[in-house]
Amino acid sequence: MHSSRKGGEKMKKGKDRLTFNAFSIMMLLLFSSFCLLPFILILTGSFTSQESILRDGYRLIPKEISLEAYRILFESPKQLLQAYGVTILITAIGTFLGLFFTSMAAYVLASKNFRYRNQVSFFFYFTSIFGGGLVPWYIFIIKGLHLNNTIFAMIMPIMVNVTYMLIMKSYMLSIPESLFESAKIDGAGDFRIYLSVALPLSKTALATVGLFTALNYWNDWYNAMLFIDEGHKSLYPLQYFLHTLLTKADAMRNVAAMSGVPIANVPTEPMKLAMTVVATGPIILLYPFLQKYFVKGVTIGAVKG
Amino acid sequence: MRKHHFLRDLKANRTKWLMLVPSILFFLLMCYIPMTGIVLAFKQYNYQGGIFGSPWVGFDNFQFFFLSGKAWIVTRNTILYNLMFLLLNNGLQILCAIILFEMGGKWFKRITQTCMFLPYFISWVVVGTFIYNLFNYEFGVVNTLLEGMGKTPIDVYSSGVSWIFILAAVSAFKNLGYGTVMYLAAVTNIDTEQFEAADIDGATMWQRIRYITLPSIRPTMIILFLLSIGTIMKGDFQMFYQVVGDNPMVMETTDVIDTFVVRSLMQTQEFGMTSAVGLYQSVFSFILIMTVNTIVKKIEPDYALF
Question: Which pTM value belongs to this model?
């Protein structure tokens, strides 16, 4: 009796599940193709010949495959390599300093015997609820700090982030206090404890915050737009270089001129897409391996508000 | 007395304070010192005088902004766009989170989730290329498809209304994965005993979702909703600029406060007026955040911002 009742329910539940699963599979397929399709279009577009694009338009499956765009891009890669170099430099310096400063501050804010931790926390936090707006900040960076047309104009603005500091702080708060205490008894000072106890035990948080910071630097073009003049093109980071290629006809002409190919023969359309592929490639290739750290970061952020 | 305490602490916790110095300096330079430049909103900026030497003009800058007719358009657009993103994105994200939580099939789930999270990692410039690739009038994918079906191509660059849909889609595209992960964390936190009990009682899938899952993530939903209300006056400059660009033909429906400020700043170097707009935005946002935080504190003190 008992077992037959259960069996009946299982059937009912099974049917219910089936409908839900069918619906779910459809939804997930729909959403993931919506998210993936633009990437595929860019990739196939970059391998299409200029003539085919002008005649048939961009399409999912190219009518005429051509490697011309990549060939020209890599034949005279000076500008591309320069932009890559700037981005890598900014990302490396910015992420290192950002992580160092953020984790030091987080360590102090997480230590319970620091009397002013609430006040200092508020000093940091207040900046995320009130600001003076873009213009005074813009003027101060140019006229006060004279950072325009230097690499620091792209490193400074996004170096320390309050949210990441709070993530790091909450992570350090979860380290058992006894570990700090015993280090202290051994005669270690605060900086020593931070280096040899707090940091090694916060590897996950460091990886997560470090990756988010690095991503912000890698994808930044806004600060370059604000602070780097056209006279200092060699300081353009990758994303901003890509932006100028897409929006300014003369930027594309410059690349063409350097490759030595007559302007009329330069496949401008697939080159825009090829450049996008080259600028995004490293992130997309690395992403599947790093995804878990980002997921962790979002989760900690969500729990702590 | 307090000062004495502070100095003593400075000395006793020398190392700790030194460790805070870089971050304190950072926020002083990037936030607090620029904040004093707010006075610019009440001044007529000139190069000789700089921020503090320029003459005062009272509320002229604000008056100029509000009388230009731009104030209403950009404020309306900023708020309406943010409301649309808020409702659409959260709806889709909750749907995806529930699906991913309830469904079996580990690999299928992992692959689809990876695809949905991917757009979060690319820059807005790349999103700009996507838009170009899709909507370019002469050879964009959309028009190629329309022509293939024998329909007339559309020119989104002269049609203001199309951008409302494009921006909604772009925002959903970029934020779907991130938000899904966030809601998935909330769903995963639900006590599994509740689901087991529901299974024993023979609850249907829909009942499970309606009576357990949704009520359980309600606090998260409310908090995220309220926090978004706090930033409703802030437009995402990077998104609007890269997706729409500086296109005067569609500005009526696509110009938000932030694009207006950057454009005025870069094109006209109108420091006084743009500062006034920035201050207007900051003050409103501040009031909203404070209000929202007070409400959150009342309903769910754990989630209050401060």
Answer: 0.92
